[in-house]
Amino acid sequence: MPPTTAPLPNTTHASNLATFFCLSRPSPSRPALPPELILQILAHPSRWLLSDSVSMRTPKTVSANDIPIVTLPPFTFAKVNLLRRITFRFRSKDQGWSWDTENHGTYAGSWTWFEAVVPGGEIDMSNSDDSDDEGTGQVKKRFELQRNRHAGSQYEDYEIVFEDGDARMTELKNALTEGDILELRACARFGAWVNHVEEAKVEVWCPDDLGSCR
Questions:
Q1: Closest CA to 94 of 149, 134, 157, 146
Q2: 101 within 8 A of 118, measured Cβ to Cβ
Q3: Which of 109, 98, 118, 99 is nearest to 171 (CA)?
Q4: What pLDDT digit, counting tens, does each position of 34-63 carry?
Q5: How far is Cα 133 from Cα 120, in angstroms, rounded to an integer?
């Protein structure tokens, strides 16, 4: 998969409209571009818009449970079709100790982690640990995102990106229907394991819907 291109932080619908109308008019150095070509240019990832940005309000501590820590607004039919990138960011650590000293400092044997979950429908165990029988309700689709470092003493920052064209984004879009929500869940199993979450944010990026400019 080619390297991703980050959206420009100041891209807005207004700036995309201005670009469209600028390129649709001739200049001394070039002819006017056809609308279909301009729309292809503005569909580039650098011109995508931040559709939703939701953050966790307060730090969370999770033990022997799955807790939604960020919930996106319900998806519309149009947003499912336009969905191009979802970014999950969180800062976390486990309880900082365990008896399994062989795996300390690695991600092996870690029983605190994060999932992206579409609630509702049938139980989906395809992307979660087999022992996950204590989760919060039924889910249509779930994806394990990241395990905490085993017995980590310091908070660490993680970023996981689903982008158009990769397998996880395809699975997610196939699962989503109008009215569905998407949750970022912090998870922990067994009594001694604790997932400490200091910060969390989920961002949704979509291309600008400029079809009316044709």
A1: 149
A2: no
A3: 118
A4: 888 877 887 788 888 899 999 999 999 999
A5: 15
